[in-house]
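Anyone opening a protein record will find just a pair of labelled lines. With that in mind, the following record should read easily:
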Amino acid sequence: MGIEKKMIYGRDARKAVLSGILKCGRAVASTFGPRGRQSVVYKGSSPYMTRDGMKTVQAISFRDELENIGACLMKEVCTRANFSNGDGSSTVVIIAAALCKKAEDLLDGGMDINVLVKGFREAAHDVMGSIDSKKFPVKGDDDLRRVALISAHGDDEVADLVVKAFTGIGENGVVAIADSLSRKGKSDVIFSTGCDFERGFLSSQSVNTKSDTCDVLDPLVLLISKPVEAFEDVIPFLQYAQSNERPVVMIAPDFDDSVVAGFNGNLSKKALSGAMILSPGVSKQDVKERMRDLNVLLGGRILHEDVETDQFDMTSDFGGCGQMIVHANKTEVIDPKTDRKKFEDHAAELKAKIEKDDVDEAYTEFEIEKIKSRIAHMEGGVATIKVGGLTTMEVEEKKDRYEDAVNAVRAVLKEGMVLGGGTCLLKIALELEKLRSDPAYCGFIDAVKEPFRVLVRSTGRSVESVMLEILGDPGSQKGFDAREMRTCDLYEAGIMDSLKVIKNDVMYASSVAETYATLDVAIVSDLGSVSIKPVDPAFQEFFGEGM
């Protein structure tokens, strides 16, 4: 018989969960913007400093089970935003916390949950549509530097090196972040060949860095054209890697659970290092073509397509590269062991496919775009930003800023930018709140002003006075520069954010707020671990102050 569970209903359950949400929001709000402060986090046996919203939230847990549910909701929304954008984790937490607080206030006032959800959904749709209307095109490297500077909390060195990296490899290249070996703590950019693809490690057991990646040097890369159904099928390759003290990376369409368990067992025993990665691509034909691209880049032969197991030459049939960095959702290949002639012939073959004049053999527009994307990824290079610092804590904190800046610039190159994320949301909110008066809709609209409010408060200025300065010049590009603590023309000041990041932050925050609002029963293992109490008044400053 299982352990008896306890249940808490309605307002009591939501209040306790909200307490955890607002504590997370308060922690992240203190790190927000160029005037934000540091948070210190213990991970393992050593602390590190960060101003990254994702890492701050991920480190939070509570003894109170319901508060911990609130923390889990914030971790989830952070993870979604980070997976999609690579940046904007602080903004999404701040908006989500403000929306949850607003939802609770409205429900406390007697609003029906269905009316609340309908109003929130309509407001989210209108806000995201308005963000699209505020789009600014990227006009050059100066604009990219401005975006990088904002994401790097005003660090000029970070912005300069990120722009240098993208200028060197282009939109389709790879920008990797690594530790510098410089004793003087200097950072620099090193250019090399390589690519990336949209698949990450199959198991977190592969992680071997503080950045939650699997970073391996000179790996043996085994490309497999068929699903791996038995661990015994790959044992010879793993034994060869172990005997030669080399990391191994296996890429295949699928891995049976027994294979994953066997590989993880060897990782946990430190007998091996490396990762299993699912083949990039969607359809069978797409997977086959993308595997051939990787084969051309990495060298070697594809198991079960070019060669069978008993004919596989361990000394020459593995693919390889100088370094491979495997994330949860992507893989970066640096200095692949490419046969240049084979590579050029393959690229020429792909280009010839999209230049056919024969109508019967011509590709659709969608297929042409996919082929162009494959060519661009193959021909793009790799820029590795070597991050320097005088202490390990300094290096880790700077790497957070570099990662945010790189992801923000890449998002801007794909979908454009807006002038000042906080100011952009403020102006949209002021426009939309004139159109309707129903409480749920207006409550949502008011909550999206929260990033602007937090930004202004971090400088010590009055939110109301700054808003009056901006509203005194309607229709202009005027907004708030938190770094200089003044209002100004945002474009001239170079204060720009990624449109994609801001838009996705609103979408994900809206989703978690709806999840919270519809909560009606919480099931816990011990009522003694739950303290049902009013929300701490200290959080009103961050998530309860309207205008």
Observations:
- The first helix runs from residue 10 to 29.
- Residues 6-136+417-543 form a domain with the GROEL; domain 1 fold (CATH 1.10.560.10).
- The longest strand covers residues 188-197.
